[in-house]
Amino acid sequence: MEGLQRRNKIKKLLTESDEPMTGSRLAKTFSVSRQVIVQDIALLRAKGCKIISTSNGYMIYESKKEYTKLLAVKHTKEDIREELETIIDFGATIVNVMVIHPVYGEITANLMLSSRKHIDDFIKKLQNNESIPLMRLKNGEHYHLIKANDDKTLELVEKELEKKNFLI
Question: Which of 54, 61, 122, 146 is the most buried (most CB within 10 A)?
């Protein structure tokens, strides 16, 4: 299969999928190395395809009629699961996490968490890699961009996070 044909199929797979797809999975699907997939993704992006990398793999981010809100939160490492589950249990998606670092400025990581399985996978990665969550750079203070299908959902999430004393 030639590169152009493969890239068109990658774009089609990502467009039709509701879940992120890992580079390894795409490499296996097309019988190429993961590095070839990384190059294909870069070429697709250069042509304007809105592919983002998340902790769970690649996905196409097309804006639909969605509502977003940036939330300023603070909590301990032990509260990560509760915070994330509170957001998704109301039907919102956690688009990213961001901290404002005094030296590096804004540091953002795409998350695209919308289910408890996504959260389980994310937390396992934090634990297995002994990674430090971004929030630890600012003593627990961080931001989440969340999205939902309506403003009401965003309001419910915000009220619940406030009740749990996670909002700054």
Answer: 146
CA angle, 48 then 54 then 55, to 5° = 160
Instruction: State how far the alpha carbon of 120 is from the alpha carbons of 23, 41, 80, 102, 151, in Å.
Output: 20, 26, 11, 31, 27
Report CA 58 to chain centroid distance, whole Å: 10
Residue pair 143/65 in contact by the 8 Å Cβ criterion:
no
Backbone angles phi, psi at 149, to 5 degrees: -80, -10
Does pTM surpass 0.85?
no
The set of residues, in sequence order, having a beta carbon less than 8 Å from that of 109 and lying 6+ positions away, is 55, 96, 97, 98, 134
Q: Which residues on adjacent β-strands are paired with residue 60? A: 51
The distance in angstroms from the start CA to the end CA of the chain is 52
pLDDT in tens, 126-166: 888 777 777 777 788 999 999 998 999 999 999 999 999 99
Task: Answer yes or no: are the C-beta atoms of 143 and 73 closer than 8 Å.
Answer: yes
Residue type at 99?
V
